[in-house]
Amino acid sequence: MHTASPPRPAAPVLRVEALTLAFGGVKALNGVGFDVQPGSITAVIGPNGAGKTSLFNTISGFYRPTAGSVQFDGTDITRVAAPRRAAMGLARSFQNIALFRGMTVLDNIKLGRHAHLKTHVLDALFYLGRARREEAELRRDVEERIIDFLEIDHIRHASVAALPYGLQKRVEMARALAMQPKVLMLDEPVAGMNREETEDMARFILDVRREWGITVLMVEHDMAMVMDLSDHVVVLNFGQVIAQGKPQEVQANPEVVRAYLGAGDVSTLRAKLRGATA
């Protein structure tokens, strides 16, 4: 009698292997490796200077690694330029908001679709058939789906420069969603937000995964949110992975405690992870 084999785990949508990044003699990343499973929310955490932003910049193509590889959807993209990675479905937001402040919310969001447009110069110049169809499709997707989803219809024609910080972060997420990503990379999505804004953004992140099936990879300092939302947590310190696993496994890891506190006071770290202390 043959017993059924257990189902094989899904192939990771993003795989980082032995990633090393050096600036001169300083290693910002040193042999970093982890997998991101499709449909998951994976968080990268660590103290200031741990290498989190360097990791994001390397995965998204802004930095070229000294060694190691980045594989996206089964393809090695280590040498692929950043715009091409975006067109393949790897979209990101930035720690410091990177919107065009002189443009409206709607125009900023529509720019996110640029990598997917197929219109050539003559089509666009004379606004011919394909250009008209692409514009109509873009407006429907942005206006009927993304703007409605992120609850920013009331500011669609407002100048980005006139918006409060929390709404600007929401617009930046909308622009990333307009890129039709398979993996959405969020660099500190709730940094600088108050509690209400943070709760709204957490809800949007969960809904992006649940309703749109988008995989999320985020860097975030809000430990309470990380522990509530994440399926998998990767902890960096001094450019190396010191722990990874489920949130409850990571917060009990003594290496993580030492990285954050410099001591073995587990109860203090757990209180911090719950948001009970600063």
Briefly, what is this?
By secondary structure, the chain is an alpha/beta fold. It contains 11 helices and 10 strands.
* Rg measurement, Å: 20 Å
Overall geometry = globular
Helix content: 25-40%
Give the biggest sheet: 6 strands, mixed
The SSE order reads EEEHEEHEHHHHEHEHEEHHH
The assigned CATH architecture of the largest domain is: 3-Layer(aba) Sandwich
Determine the structural class based on helices, strands and strand pairing: alpha/beta
Give the SSE map.
Blueprint: E1 14-23, E2 26-36, E3 41-45, H1 52-59, E4 67-72, E5 75-76, H2 82-88, E6 90-92, H3 105-111, H4 121-126, H5 129-149, H6 165-177, E7 183-187, H7 195-212, E8 215-219, H8 223-229, E9 232-237, E10 240-245, H9 247-251, H10 254-261, H11 266-273
Parallel strand pairs: 3-8, 3-9, 6-7, 7-8
Antiparallel strand pairs: 1-2, 1-4, 4-5, 9-10
Helix pairs in contact: 3-6
